[in-house]
Write a structure and sequence with these properties.
By secondary structure, this protein is an all-alpha fold. It is built from ten helices and no strands. It folds into two domains: 33 residues; 117 residues, no CATH class. The protein starts with a helix and ends with a helix.
C-alpha cells in the first residue's frame, strides 16, 4: 500500500509541476504581446516619474505619458492587478487629477473583484483617498451592493 501512495504522490507532484510550468509559459506569452519598444518607453517614463530629483513638471508630463501608453493598450484594469504596474496606476491617480474620473469609469463594475485581488488593494486605497465625496459614495455603493443604496442615510 505504501508504494502505491508514493507512486501517486510522485505522479501528483509531476502533474503539479507540469501545470505550474504551463502557467509560467502562458504568463510569458501574455508579456510578449506587448511590443518591446513599448516596454522600453514604459521603463523610461516610469524612471522619470519615480525619481525625486526631476522637477514636478517633468514628472507630471512623464506620468501623463504613461497614462496615454497604458490607456492606448487598454490594460489599466489589468495593470492594477499586476505586482509592479499597480504603482503606475497609483502614480496616475496621484499626479494626474484630470484622469481620475477616467480611471474610476474603467474600474466601475469591477470594485468587488479588485478588492478580492491580492495586488490591487493598494490601488483601491489610493483611488478612495484621492476621490471626491461623490466618487467615494459611488465606490461604497458598488462595494456594498444595492442594499447600501436603499438604506443609506
Amino acid at each position: 500500500m505504501i508504494p502505491t501512495l508514493l507512486k501517486n504522490s510522485e505522479e501528483r507532484k509531476r502533474s503539479d509541476a507540469g501545470h505550474i510550468k504551463a502557467a509560467f509559459d502562458d504568463r510569458n506569452h501574455i508579456n510578449s504581446k506587448l511590443d518591446p519598444g513599448h516596454r522600453l518607453e514604459f521603463k523610461k517614463r516610469w524612471e522619470i516619474a519615480r525619481r525625486k530629483n526631476f522637477s514636478s513638471e517633468e514628472r507630471n508630463k512623464s506620468v501623463t505619458g504613461l497614462f496615454e501608453l497604458v490607456r492606448g493598450n487598454g490594460r489599466l484594469l489589468e495593470a492594477s492587478k499586476n505586482k509592479y504596474s499597480k504603482y503606475i496606476v497609483c502614480k496616475l491617480m496621484k499626479f494626474c487629477p484630470e484622469y481620475r474620473s477616467k480611471i474610476l469609469t474603467e474600474f466601475k463594475g469591477q470594485i468587488k473583484k479588485l478588492f478580492l485581488h491580492t495586488e490591487s488593494g493598494i490601488v483601491l486605497l489610493e483611488v478612495y483617498e484621492l476621490s471626491n465625496a461623490m466618487q467615494r459614495s459611488s465606490l461604497l455603493e458598488e462595494f456594498y451592493g444595492p442594499e447600501f443604496t436603499l438604506f443609506k442615510i
